Amino acid sequence: MTTLAGLPVSRIGLGLAALGRPGYINIGHATDLERGRDVPTMEAHAHTVLDAAHAAGVRYFDAARSYGRAEAFLASWLAAQGLAPGAVTVGSKWGYVYTADWKVEAENHEVKEHSIANLTRQVAESRAILGSYLGLYQIHSATLESGVLGNRAVLDELGRLRADGLKIGLSITGPRQAETLRVAMEVEVGGSRLFDSVQATWNLLEPSAGPALAEAHAVGMGVIIKEALANGRLTGRNDDSAFSVKRRAIKVEADRLGTTPDALALAAVMSHPWVDVVLSGATTVGQLRSNLDASKIVWNREIDDRLASLAEGSDEYWTTRSRLPWN
Fold first, then answer.
1. 294-325 exposure pattern, b = at least 16 Cβ within 10 A, e = fewer
2. Which terminal Cβ of the chain has fewer Cβ within 10 Å, N or C?
3. In CATH, what class is 2-322?
């Protein structure tokens, strides 16, 4: 166990992006939900994965208003477990509205809105569902282009929520993650830094935000890493012929260490001292258990050197990600 902005967390957390809605961009997501995508079936499935995660020591759970029914599934699981607030740490996010209407194929799955009206509405919704379990509330996918980091009304309201006891964070995305984070680090409300944490994409294909994340950690911000498996591109499910050389390099290194590609990718994240939590995005118990094996891997500089060639340019990475199909 460790802490994130003063909240107790496990080094590996569970993100519910793929568990809370019937469609997502993870490779193979459709196969993971083959038992059914109706709400009761998916809620029972989510509870099964949450049970396994908690039994294995996972103590940080990450949701969002736009993750379909993720918050509701998590809340019903917490109630069924009889866990007291503080026994686990729950983070959620505001800023996207779920618009897919429980469909896999939709014109828009989620719509970004970083307005004060949306913040006010969504934080009330999150609190109504999660109650006192909610410990960390984050801007969902803050970017410089959205203008949210310069929206005084939003920032002041986040400051009020922070004074009321919530930890405040932001998640970042896209090829300008580092620039966005450095701007966020300078945001103050009431004379002190607003953001307690940052959630960012870092993986073997897209490591560009690393230096900025190290800076954030050094000034006291908690660091959560998402998409460590690049939405499945760093797993054995990625059969893209254009990825064959990199897939072979990953398998060779995983075999050498006696592990799996997904555990290898997560261990690469955990090897950095500036990482507090890395999220597993597992949709099945089997995936979760394989992910958790990352904690058994002893990392060293030689592994870094052998895998350095996997890195892609940021623009290339994010363009590829944008083309992943919802399934």
1. bbebebeeebeeebeebbbebeebbebbeebe
2. N
3. alpha beta
